[in-house]
Amino acid sequence: MKLSLGFSTCPNDTFIFDAMIHHKIDTEGLTFDVHMADVEELNDLAFSKKLDITKLSYHAFCYLTSDYRLMKAGSALGRGNGPLLIAKKEKVDLSNGIVAIPGKYTTANLLLTVAYPEIKQKKEMLFSDIENSLLEEKIDAGTIIHENRFTYHQHGLHKIADLGEMWESRSGHPIPLGGIVTRRDFSLELQQKIDRVMARSIQYAFDHPEEPMSFIQEHAQEMDAEVMKKHIELYVNHFTKNLGNEGVEAIKFLFKEAQRVGLIDNYASDFLIP
Fold it and tell me: Which domains does the chain carry?
């Protein structure tokens, strides 16, 4: 059975998906038509219901629990790995400035909304363009994710806030950044099979960490090898293997925060594949 599968070109995704799309594990008869894209493009595809399985931001998932169910395996969720708010100047008037976000439905934007509700002017742009836009003074501040966390200071940019630290301090929960979902209208048997295959692929990557490197480098050609390693270590952890109760409670809290700030009215309580 062939299923459409979406994930990003970021090292954490190519690391965990390598084994299942390159037939290094038992996929239980499943094959995959792969679509690789920026996370906000994947979010948009999920809203269009064009993918059978996809990585998406937990912010986007807030709106899509009636269409997709979440796998226990595959999430980017943890502590100390949240988005940063940065600027060219050390002090910025956020209430009157233009603040870049890496997409309307990214979890970064949700965390920014919770932390700084006074921000009125947001500008969507590709996450990798935010640093240059700051340096060229096209924007006043920017919300950065992925490998830019490790490189912004090299360009003389300043951290205004760690949105992840603010979230953890306020909530006590780890940060739910992104997860892997599959279509809700699939049979429960198929949903659970996909979840098993995902978990098997992740475990293979943990057991053979050097094997995915050529695939990772192919899609992160300009990224320094040490940055790639740090990226994987930051976003791939025990929650990626299995959300567990702690991870599920963090996601529920995020959904409730989305309700509190008026982004969603409700969500499906059975959002997780049993």
Answer: 2-78+176-260 (3.40.190.10), 84-171 (3.40.190.10)
Q: Which helix (H) or strand (E) holds 200?
A: helix 188-207
> Which pLDDT value is given to residue 101?
93
Count the helix, strand and coil residues of the chain and give each as a percent rounded to the nearest 5. Answer: 45, 20, 35
Q: How confident is the model at residue 147 (pLDDT cuts 50, 70, 90)?
A: low
Ordered DSSP codes for 42-61: HHHHHHTT--SEEEEEHHHH
pLDDT at 254: 93
CB distance 239 to 197 below 8 Å: no
Q: Which of 79-88, 124-133, 187-196, 260-269 has the highest mean pLDDT?
A: 187-196
Q: Is 35 a catalytic residue?
A: no
Concatenating the DSSP letter of every residue in 61-85 gives HHTTTTTEEE-SS--EEESS---EE
pTM: 0.87
Active-site residue, selected from the candidate residues 59, 146, 173, 231: 146
Question: Which region holds residue 163: left if phi is over 0, alpha if psi is between -120 and 50, else beta?
Answer: alpha
Given its phi and psi angles, is residue 26 left (phi above 0), alpha (psi -120 to 50 degrees) or beta? beta
- Of 209, 94, 87, which is closest to residue 156 (Cα–Cα)? 87
**At residue 129, does pLDDT exceed 90?**
no
